[in-house]
């Protein structure tokens, strides 16, 4: 599977840049070989290699095939970021689990606050993970957002759930929605209050304190289940 941001359709198509390099130099595809192209429009496009150069690959693209590997409902995750390589891991796994949108969060107790440049970095990770897991729609990556702005956003699907540690909280369910995960230092009481004021539920994943990426992935796996 090879990705292009360009529109695709039956006919000749020229693939360039890192994907062309990947196709020829890394994967060693050559004239006559069959590959699959995707661009995030929900389809995949079987194609045959016409000629394979180092920097450009000419392909004959066939009719698109609908290949829907989405959850069927929106699953938005807002999260404080763990340190660099664990953040990349988090984005890769969230893509595999079918999340539809990821929002890096600016929170009070975060050791590292996300910079605007993470959008490009994470978007590349989404493409790589989509090539591997077969998704034909890309998880969206938003610009880092302040907690107060995030919890007041009108476009987030419900139920909206803040994951929080501590006793006496209800447990996370299934069927999509929005989850928010705090930094290694946890959410402050006023951040939790602000979410509650905006109608968010405050729920738990159990009695053990999980790392940010574990909490994100466990919650995404639970919410990614279809409700019964
Ligand atoms: N000392 C912090 C505290 O007690 O809140 C630990 C924060 S934890 C490393 C990072 C984030 O993961 C938390 O803010 C929360 O969003 C989420 N989290 C971790 N364990 C959780 C659990 N058992 N239930 C719900 N959320 C959890």
UniProtKB/TrEMBL annotation:
**Which segments constitute the Ribosomal RNA small subunit methyltransferase E methyltransferase domain?**
73-223
Query: Which intervals hold domain Ribosomal RNA small subunit methyltransferase E PUA-like?
Result: 15-61
Query: Which CDD domains does the entry link to?
Result: RsmE-like
| A Pfam family assignment | Methyltrans_RNA
Question: Any coiled-coil ranges, and where?
Answer: none
The signal peptide annotation in the UniProt record is none
Q: What is its main location?
A: cytoplasm
- Highest taxon of the lineage: Bacteria
**Is the keyword Iron assigned to this protein?**
no
Q: Which UniProt keywords apply?
A: Cytoplasm, Methyltransferase, rRNA processing, S-adenosyl-L-methionine, Transferase
Reactions that this protein is recorded to catalyse:
uridine(1498) in 16S rRNA + S-adenosyl-L-methionine = N(3)-methyluridine(1498) in 16S rRNA + S-adenosyl-L-homocysteine + H(+)
Subcellular compartments: Cytoplasm
Q: What is its EC number?
A: 2.1.1.193
Q: Please describe what this protein does.
A: Specifically methylates the N3 position of the uracil ring of uridine 1498 (m3U1498) in 16S rRNA. Acts on the fully assembled 30S ribosomal subunit.
Name the protein family.
Belongs to the RNA methyltransferase RsmE family.
Name of the protein described by the UniProt record: Ribosomal RNA small subunit methyltransferase E
Q: Which organism is it from?
A: Gemmata palustris
Q: What high-level taxonomic lineage is stated for the organism?
A: Bacteria, Pseudomonadati, Planctomycetota, Planctomycetia, Gemmatales
